[in-house]
Amino acid sequence: MTGIRHVDLTETQVASSETARRINRDIILELIRENQPTSRIELSRASGLQKSTVSQIVEQLISENWVVERAVGATPRGRRPTLLGLNEHIVAIAVDVHPRMAIVAVVDLNGRLLSQSKVPVTSEPAASTRLIVDCIRRFKAFFTDRAIEGIGVSLPGRVDPESQRLTFAPNLRWPDFDLKGAIEGEFGLQVSMENAATACLLAELTFGRMDGIRDIALVTISEGIGAGVFADGRIISGAHGMAGEFGHIPLDPEGPRCGCGRKGCWEMYASCRAAVGYYRKRRAGNKDVSFQELLNLAEEGSKDAQEALEQQALYIGRGLRIVIASLSPALILIAGEITSAWHRFEGIIAKEVKSYVLAGTPPRIIPTHEGEMARLRGAAALVFQRQIARPHSAGDAGSRQA
After folding, report:
1. pLDDT of 399
2. Hey, what domains does the chain have and what are their CATH numbers?
3. Order of strands, sheet of 331-336, starting from the edge strand that comes earlier in the sequence
4. Which of 70, 297, 373, 375 is most buried by a 10 A CB count?
């Protein structure tokens, strides 16, 4: 017996045949993504669905333009199967916004970056948005042979899931501004926005190999610190999209004032901005350096740079104690520029975390494979997840803007 469990009747829907069809469709699409090129017969074996059911789903996905037929496969005898794969002509425009810069890119359905460009970002949201819009317009003019599904935006702050408005972004320093409406008004394409950490997490779940792991925290370390939460097999956004703001939990209530207005927040000690500050204190009078330049100086043998990074790593580990105590994840993914010099961070972070585990074994802590590119792939995943989850007719496919 499973006993009685709580069911929220305001959220729950009775299962229907349409629900089953949608689940089977998602399973087949994911199997194609992971095993392409693959055949209908292989999909039937892997899914356990009948061949006729698989064929119906595949034909639907082909009519929607998500899947295409490729070459004919080789077989020792009998009829040779037609192989299937994702339609690489479907793309998303991905925008990754930072406090001083935005990266605009074109990403295909397999998560490949086809092109990217950088534009400056200032404290004036309207002016910054115009530069982003101009860059998107250039990409649309160049990629006329591709079908653009939509625009995904990764942001250094929190986005309310209902209003899709930026509600908390202390490092961006923008006043209230309807970024989604401004971009949609220019292109007529749907815009999806999300916090950078949650977008990175979605990229790992969409394009990575996370099957079987149900509890993950993804921590982005850049100008600030944010976290995306995957708990019991679901992405958690929380009220107003604010779940995962560990970067603004104080490590020292008497510490330096943070952009959020409080003192001693974790990101004031463990962000890339903090590491540059540690180096500047050691090299009084020297000109400012970027975090990438700091990494280069450490590799060139600068003791001051190496010690600054060690201090940052120490505080990353101390802050991760809070994440572990709060969420107890099986896996912690780290995204950001520090992943390019992971050998300087891994040992110090692991030591700090190991010393604090209350029970059981520490979670695995590994860097994302793409570093900063994870944010772009996450922005694209926002578009593909939304559209793929919404079956539409073959006529809709022709309405996509190229």
Report:
1. 40
2. 17-86 (1.10.10.10), 90-201+376-397 (3.30.420.40), 208-374 (3.30.420.40)
3. 234-236, 225-231, 216-221, 331-336, 364-367
4. 375
